[in-house]
# Entry
Amino acid sequence: MPKPSKTAPRKRETLAQEIQRRLEAILNYPRTVGSSAYVQSQAEYQEHFTGGAPNKADEVLKYARACLKDGPMDKMIYLSVGGGDGSELGRAMSKGGFGRGLLVEWMDPAVETARKLVPPLLRPGQQVEYMTGDVGQKHDLVQAQLDAWRREGMTGMLLSAQAVLHELPWRADPEKFFWGKLISLFHPFDVKLFHSREPCLPGCTDGGAWLAPVRVGLPFLDGARLCGAIKLVQEHYLSFRKEGLDIAFQGKVLDLGNECQAPGPAVVEFLHKFMRHWDARHLRHEMEECLAAFDPQWIQMHLNDVFGGAQHVSVEYSASQGFRDEYHRLQVQARSADRLAQLPVPQAFCWIKAFHAGGRAAAGRPGKRQRPAAEPAKVSAPAAGAGPRSDTATEPPSPGGAATQIGTVIGQVVAGNLNIAGDQTFQVPPPAPRRTRRSATKRKPKPGSLSIHAEKVNIVHQLNTKTANL
# Structure
């Protein structure tokens, strides 16, 4: 959760005044978006998020140390995508001991700040480079830098993308960007780590309650004004006609007096705007981002292909502490529309983590799950003095289904039509599966069935004796 700017005037106001002011800013957004009050410089916006960067670096380092068993990281590269002013990268390099670091950030003021902030934090032998621009546009330069460090002896890479992936739905071809521009950077390395914390589609672990229609209420607000703000946020994103946004945000917005009923993701998107903006300039940037429509399971599918399977990739859902604190401070009340049960704080954030080491994982075709390779057939070792077994593993024939086949083989051996060398064996094909009776009661043996079974055993004995004498 961003903190208020140091330069913003601090006014003492009651909770009622604050709620009214925040809601009024959203309702007035379409009429005043072009005014000077909504113009915010990159440096002013970046100031909101500087304080949380060290905490993000600590989370990444905790995960990396757990994966690497607290081993040294001097042969690892720390790639920070969208890392702002370098606060995260500087702390990771200082506390983690990474050999190389690379910051890719699109805002010029942030990169210039990083060039001054990071170098004093480095240890002897560490090296950091900085690139201004989008990682998709700078892909070739990033790849060239990583290849150069790999030739210098770097064996692994950790990619940290904090609050970056949720912007993928806004790209022209998000799958091509994620697979071709971002994940492809991992391929040359044997040790791979990925860590990302993102706002996401809510309700993935609470039974889907926040994906269904939700009744929401705020103190000191009537349902009509609250519905007006939620509907404005909903229509703002539906106007972009982006796949995923339509599915998440579509639905009726109903005034229920002191409450408003609306699609769960649209309510969560409104709460992000309502709780996160501190002034009109910050609200403009928030309205340019969509936070509650990002589905991390789509990213997980791609990471499974690169990191060697689902066992190496995890997605954890939660609510950030800042979001949770504001939710309770502003006294938000939410209930399910069908059962009217009180809903918990929406788990509107996720942690996406992946790790693979000890060889390069095969890169599968993007967007498709790879079929696991079939395990080789297990063949038991032949007994002493016996000939080699066949490489084809088959189930042993059942006594009832193979009697005719065994009798045919015996007849061919006796007639001399089947020549079997002393170091060879043969296998009878398994019988066709028989239908089983549903009755749990045992059938009584028919008269003479025991003698038939004894005859089958005698045939098998004759076969073994005949083949041993050949």
About this structure: The first strand starts at residue 76 and ends at 81. Residues 84 and 91 are 13 Å apart (CA to CA). The chain has 16 helices and eleven strands. Confidence is low (pLDDT under 50) at residues 2-9, 362-461, 463-470.
